[in-house]
Request: fold
Amino acid sequence: MGFLNAVYDLGNKQLSGIESFLQLPLQPGGKEIRVYLKADNFDEKPLKILSVSKVDTVDFMSGEQDTEKWKLKYLYRDPVGPNASWKFTPIIKIGKPKKNYQNNYEDFAGHKDKNGKAISWREDTKSYFFKLKNKTLIDYEESGYFAAGSVDAIMNGLENQVGNIIEKFTENAPYMIVLGIDDGGHFLYPGDIPIFVDYFKEKFDNRNRNLGSNKSKGNKRCAMCGKEAESTVNLNEIFNFATFDKKSFLPALDENAHSKVFPICKDCFAMLSSGRERLDREFLDQKTLPGTNIWCIPEIIGPDLAENQKMIINQFRNFIQNDAVQSEKAMFDGLAELMNANLVFHFVFWEKPKGKAAQELVHLMIEDVPPTRLRRIEKIWEKSLKIVESKKGERLSSAIKTIYFTLNNLGKDDNERKVLKDIIVKTIGKILNGEKVNVESIKLIFVQKFSQLLHPSKEQKINPYSEIKDMFLVIDFLSSLNEEVNK
Reply:
């Protein structure tokens, strides 16, 4: 419960209504392409869209950096799943654009078939225009929020503007497209428009009513706060850890009972949702391990919780949002500096498998790691660097990265690297948890790969001397850590 309690404490108790469940669609540094919709009576239902009047581009959250304000303006929440025929708000995340104009054009207007013949976006299910119409906009019209013909007016306008949209991709940054209303040349975001707000609320309320745990009769006890509630939702609405679809997970043996695994009441749902949003925005490390997300959640224990928590979390957040971003440091570089007797960290290593937009695969969860332990790990790493005469960085992130790349570089193919990644994550987990590492098994892997290093294939662009030196560094470091554990 330490992890969940820490996430709960990150939640904003002052938020009410849908505010607790809103998310930012991009990270700072992104770009947004704004589509201005010409409409009649945009404060009335149904909204009649006449055309697309303008397209421009601005920095994500341009202007005042008030996160809560921008969350309300974007009115964004991740889709319920990849196959859903609707979204909570008319925002499409593009990611980083391709370098070639033609490739970007085809992503919107339609790709080519195997014979090189162009396919219209109306038949190309992978094109952004197809997804925008069929998985976002059409439901506004079918549910009565848009007047008949509005979606066709939008898509016709976008077709005419496709070249202008592609020309907006001028930076190597994540982009999104957001549809709003042209109010005399001023752009109104979805959260500024009553119809889009009402649509969001209806979809959100309907979805919560249809969740599995609401189908059972009688009051249920919240697994978080212990109070009885008329209706609850399950924890996988916040953390979809790919657990509830596994038959080996005992409560899930009965498909009708999986929603009772960890029921939470409406208030706890709001707090944990708000905490999860902050977790992804302020306490997420995506730099240390390639392809792996790492949450690092600070928790205050002991007296004066409120003041201590506010001070430490602000200090930690400032490092992540300023020092780490500006210097390209990993989040781990600042953890050992936060020396506080009442502070512990919780770590979760996870990833989103490709093709499964909603699922989150957890590799490792470690709770209650004090900064003093992290500082000791850094000191041992510094000594190993001197012994092996390595010039690698002295911070904790450098130690973790060296373990990762030294082992990962030995993988001949994806299957072998997948096995090695499991070993890497478990090794890092034992280090952070203050446990002994099986150094002999790591040595065995290295010995088995010596011949591969000394006789690399053409595809392997590695320096044998550098790799073997890193092996000795890793072994010395892990052995020294084990000695520390034995003390």
